[in-house]
Amino acid sequence: MNHTLPGAPYFHYGDPGLMVEGLSLAALAQEHGTPLYVYSKAAMQGALAAYQAGFAGRKAQICYAMKANSSLAVLQVFARAGCGFDIVSGGELARVRAAGGDMQKVIFSGVGKTRLEMRDALAAGIGCFNVESEPEIEVLNAVAVSMGLRAPISIRVNPNVDPKTHPYISTGLKGNKFGIAHERTLATYQHAATLPGLRIVGIDCHIGSQITEEAPYLDALDRMLDLVQAIEATGIALEHIDFGGGLGIQYYDEVPPAADALWAKLLQKIDARSLEKHTLMIEPGRSLVGNAGVCITEVLYLKPGEQKNFCIVDAAMNDLPRPAMYQAYHAIVPLQPSTASAVHTVYDVVGPVCESGDWIGRDRALAAQPGQQLAVMSAGAYCMSMASNYNTRGRAAEVLVDGDKATVIRARESLSELFRGECLAD
Ligand code: LLP
To answer: What fold is seen in the domain 109-284?
Structure first.
């Protein structure tokens, strides 16, 4: 690899081998088994600090998009740092509660909120519902009226901006299911303002994920600020502007804008229109946790082939679905650096799941040996939170490292847990 290791400096080579903060990843794998997710608390705090620096002196609220990694101890790190949470289900609301998060700092996004989820979130006193369609506005109004409450809302605008990322993770284009079309937004606000069960508090957008250029953000903000001014000109006051998440991370050699530098530019646009009285909200997920985690896996077998050589490891698409789902690249590095003279062979790194789509990395030059451990880098976001039990495989264990202290924050899933809730028919 001739660029920096993703996750550096929190993940770094030392003695012995690849380290997370002050601990050896090989020692953690030895103690807890593989596949094993390992997170650096300092890396999460460092990523958050870049946003906080960008917002210094401003009214701002960072709502961690917990779908990226919703493990309770990870949520606790962000709750203790003063973050709110962007949630998309009643299950995520329950996780905020379990992690000690502040309900008033919760925003509820998603195109398919059920009445039950709305009721629970209203009863919990969350900060804002990001409403994604005109029918949802009617249902939320009815639910709030039935409870004698007013639901705080933002309308999620679909600004029709191309975030230039993978099509599955683009959300702000006309063809996507998210948000209310830019042209419909003003009329929808005017209608919402007449409904007795709603209280308009903000405006929201989120254009996509793993965005590595600043241009889509600058364009989307211009379109949002036009709308803010048009809405306020009709007498509807907005307290906050929520600009979503989406900032990308380094998986290979990408150099996404730094959060503070990006926000310095975005804030200039807000100030230029004298809109600085609004509280700024953002919903970052990946950029807070993606490079704070790795997945350690052990090489089981090397299988040479005519067309391809396979390096079969004990982590699979059920543990780490991003390559199978999005053809995503994750760096794969040995825990013990190979010597310059070691013979490297080009492998597809694959898991034990019975699918040809079960691969973790393609065409990787490795001096691999059975029993050797590898680290799949940039695995803090959308890996464990998307893990499944496919092929009746228990989900991996997770460890959070803080300096030289390691805490198991999720036990490896046992076989009995895999059958829980099931029974034979007679
Ligand atoms: N806000 C909303 C409304 C979202 O839908 C998302 C992500 C975020 C915030 C956080 O975006 P981030 O800062 O993490 O980019 N599983 C895919 C990513 C799906 C993103 C879904 N929405 C992946 O592994 O790349």
So the answer is: TIM Barrel (3.20.20)
Q: Which of 83, 354, 383, 423 is catalytic?
A: 354
Largest CA distance in the chain: 74
Q: How far is the CA of 141 from the centre of ligand 1 (A)?
A: 27
Ligand 1 atom index nearest CA of 382: 24
At 163 the pLDDT is 74
In angstroms, what is the span from residue 284 Cα to ligand 1's centroid? 8
Mean pLDDT of 290-308: 97
Is 354 annotated in the active site?
A: yes
Q: Is the pLDDT of residue 338 over 90?
A: no
Question: What is the pTM assigned to this prediction?
Answer: 0.97
| Residue ranges lining ligand 1, Cβ < 6 Å | 65, 67-68, 86, 109, 169, 171, 206, 209-210, 244-247, 283-287, 322, 326, 382
pLDDT digits (tens, 9 = 90+) for 260-284: 999 999 999 999 999 999 999 999 9
pLDDT band at 105 (very low <50, low <70, confident <90, very high): very high
Residue 121 Cα distances to 85, 106, 117, angstroms: 13, 9, 6
Comma-separated ranges of CATH 3.20.20.10 domains in the chain:
109-284
pLDDT digit string (tens) for 129-178? 999 999 999 999 999 999 999 999 999 998 888 777 766 666 666 777 78
Ranges in the chain annotated CATH 2.40.37.10? 11-40+290-419
DSSP per-residue codes, 250-308: -SSS--PPPHHHHHHHHHHHHHHTT-TTSEEEE---HHHHGGGEEEEEEEEEEE--SS-
Tallying the residues shown for the chain, one arrives at: 426
Match domain 11-40+290-419 to its CATH number in 1.10.10.60, 3.30.1490.100, 2.40.37.10, 3.30.390.10.
2.40.37.10
314, 350 contact by CB (below 8 A): no
| Residue 278 CA to its chain's centroid (Å) | 25
**Best substitution site from 283, 327, 330 to test ligand 1's pocket, by max atoms within 8 Å of Cβ?**
283
Residue nearest atom 7 in ligand 1 by C-alpha distance: 209
